[in-house]
Amino acid sequence: xxxxxxxxxxxxxxxxxxxxxxxxxxxxxxxxxxxxPWIAGSDPLEQDIIAKLRPPxxxxxFGTDEFGRxxxxxxxxxxxxxxxxxxxxxxxxxVVGGTIGLVSGYVGGRxxxxxxxxxxxxxxxxxxxxxxxxxxxxxxxxTNLIVAIALTAMAPFARIARAPTLIVKERQFVEAGRALxxxxxxxxxVHVLPNILSEVLVMASLWMATAVRVEASLSFIGLGVRPPxxxxxxxIRDGFENILDAPWLCIYPGLAILALIFSLNMLGDxxxxxxxPKLRGE
Amino acid sequence: MLWYVAKxxxxxxxxxxxxxxxVFVIVRIIPGDPALTVLGDQATPQALAALREKxxxxxxxxxxxxxxxxxxxxxxxxxSLVSGRPVINEVVAVLPHTLDLTISSLVLGxxxxxxLGVWAALRRNRLADYVIRIVSLVGLSFPVFVSxxxxxxxxxxxYRLFPVIGTANLSDLGDRTWKLVLPTITLGLVMVAYITxxxxxxxxxxxxxxxxxxxxxxxxxxxxxxxxxxxxxxxxPVVTVVGLYLGINIxxxxxxxxxxxRPGLGKVIVTALNQRDYAMLQGLMVIYCFLIVVTNLLTxxxxxxxxxxxxxA
Amino acid sequence: xxDPVLTVRGLRKHFATGxxxxxxxxxxxxxxxxxxxxxxxxxxxxxxxxxxxxxxxAGRAILRLIEPDAGEIVYRGQDVRAASGAALRALRRRLxxxxxxxxxxxxxxxxxxxxxxxPIEVHGLAAxxxxxxxxxxxxLDEVGLPADAAERYPHEFSGGQRQRIGIARALSVExxxxxxxxxxxxxxxxxQAQVLELMRxxxxxxxxxxxxxxxxxxxVRYFCQRVAVMYLGRIVEMGTAAELFGxxxxxxxxxxxxxxxxxxxxxxxxxxxxxxxxPSPANPPSGCHFHPRCPHAMPACRERYPEETRVGGRMVAxxxxxxxxx
Lengths: 282, 313, 326
What we know:
The structure holds 3 protein chains of 3 kinds.
Chain A: H1 2-14, H2 17-34, H3 36-39, H4 71-107, H5 109-123, H6 127-138, H7 142-168, H8 172-179, H9 184-221, H10 232-241, H11 248-275, H12 277-281
Chain B: H1 2-29, H2 34-39, H3 45-55, H4 61-74, H5 87-122, H6 127-141, H7 144-158, H8 173-207, H9 210-217, H10 222-260, H11 265-274, H12 278-306, H13 308-312
Helix pairs in contact in B: 1-12, 5-6, 5-8, 5-10, 6-8, 7-8, 7-10, 8-10, 9-10, 10-11, 10-12, 11-12
Chain C: E1 4-17, E2 27-40, E3 44-48, H1 55-62, E4 70-75, E5 78-79, H2 85-94, E6 95-98, H3 112-122, H4 129-142, H5 159-171, E7 177-181, H6 189-206, E8 209-214, H7 217-223, E9 226-231, E10 234-240, H8 241-246, H9 251-259, H10 299-303, E11 309-311, E12 314-316
Parallel strand pairs in C: 3-8, 3-9, 6-7, 7-8
Antiparallel strand pairs in C: 1-2, 1-4, 4-5, 9-10, 10-12, 11-12
């Protein structure tokens, strides 16, 4: 089973070169986050007022911030926040939203209509605003950030799981399952789910980029993970005050965010192009 | 035509009420007693009770809800807890700035995005297409505050071309435009990227349709085919995206306004959140919902113009 | 004559479309409009008719894959419509179905082995994993597929082979009656014969009863002992295959038979056409549904739906043969 999945992934990726680039950059950033304790060089929280606001040099590759902390070290550790928040949030949204869409699409009727209208209401709020409201209500913390982003992403996942469910549930092998006496739970999770997985996973990769963007934006506004934990958005926020004297404080985190989102977009694009039957035909 | 508009408004009502309900619930969930926030913790219980009564928050929840809905639908959006001024006034004060930004970024996005998207579709899989696709992907990947800051650093700080503080003098057109440039480019970039991509994929879809191939086979010159047949149909998803984007724009506006220190709806929202000015928040959300409905309506009307089939439905 | 194992009476299924919040007018499609028949043990009972006559709906309604609106379905003394829970699951074992489309009736993400093992496991028909595997192997053998098919996936098989797999899957729960919904209509003619032959063999070996739904008369003639002809949701004639096609009483049966190619040189040259098209089941003609196309239509045909009359061993619903006609 796993061999099949791997083979399929390779096949999907092989056709699209851009996704390899995206995968590469993303993998590099992940590696950076994982290896943070070893490659950071110095303690990201360690303050050194004497050395504050120093430009990039041999000692501090990316310079220091207004507390004398090493920007490079903070950047490397900041990757952890961006990645862990977005991965957790999207996984949560995928499981919850996907299940909602799956069950709702399968059950159909009034229930489906109500659920989808609820989803539509959530969808009508843009991701950032909704995230903003939720974090403002719950208070900024890593968990709340994850919950906020997950709640925002839940609605699109529900939609993207529901659409193919509506189609798959009409296929004869689903009817066969009922004829053979299978319970609804079995049909939904063993038969329908694997057939909608590819759409949902493509959505997940596309939404990862949004999740990173929302996390960074919220950190920039000041509603992200509390300092002194380094976050890329937070670093830009702090750096903004000193933008005249120390532009490096904004440049490097900005580039990092850009790189991460860009790689995720490439990945998602590649995946989507490869699995879209219409584009494949042409 | 009027009938169509009326029908669409009617159809939007349930969603509008649903969203208003969500707003009502959310705002009431905010922890903290608004009366306390306004008067401070030195206030006497009588003063607190009096204020609560004045604000109407001592009534049962259902009564509050009904008051809220009926007020919202008649246009009374309450008063700010912090400033005491009507919410409407605060909004109207900053609206021109937000509108300026929204419309100009929209125009920029369309004027650049549509031709780029069409061009990319026509040069499919050739160099131009790849370049456009990569560049638009980069444009999409820039969070607005990052691109805003970069633009600020380069053009405002380094080259001193544009101002850093962005509060425009509304009556001075020159000043207004001047302060609009960088924010517009910031927001517009994302817009261009989206519109380019959507236009490209829509055009590709349309170009492969049978009726386009037929027209080409009949010898109709390419340019005519594109303009008369393909473009019109490709515009439909573009209009959708634009409509959607107008709603999403608020999120990006917040960030742009912070970066460029511009007044606008976004900043008002964040300030209200920070100050726990929940009356203001409520009013703002109502306005926002209303804007969404109007945007959807405009989008639908635009469909009606482009696609004659829609009006018959 | 053995006793009937399946008795159906007054089966009705209407579909409502449109109306309510939709812009289309409310329309009732009378897919199955009161049919009744009996199937005996070990017998193949055919239901035949053109597209839209409701035969597929009837087949599914018997198994409650579509819930009937009205009617009685009794299998070996058990009320099928009233069953629920464990009783319904037990019934599901005994009444199975083979579907028409070999390309959509199998889950593309499941291996054949898993697809066949699943029903066995769900119903607890095997004591150990080994026994499950043994059963799967024997099922594959029974339908004429190699044992290694268990590891492969549906897309690796041809239409005819997939149909065999579908049959094997139906057999996995050891049913007594199988509803075959156009089981060979989607296959090439040469493959049709093979699959039909397989079904014949299985019927003899396992003593299965069949409700065989098809639009191809030739296939029905080959496979079935007794046949019902459906038109716009009702049965217009019912009897043994020999009687029905040898000497059709109802003009519609005659029309069907005459239009079906017969490999008899003597009849070559006489090719009557099917007159007209089947009207929509949402809006059937008044009186006898067939009267607009019937060469023998009388005034009575437009006014009243004919009663079901017994002629010899058969049933027919036609004014020509009813108490009023001659």
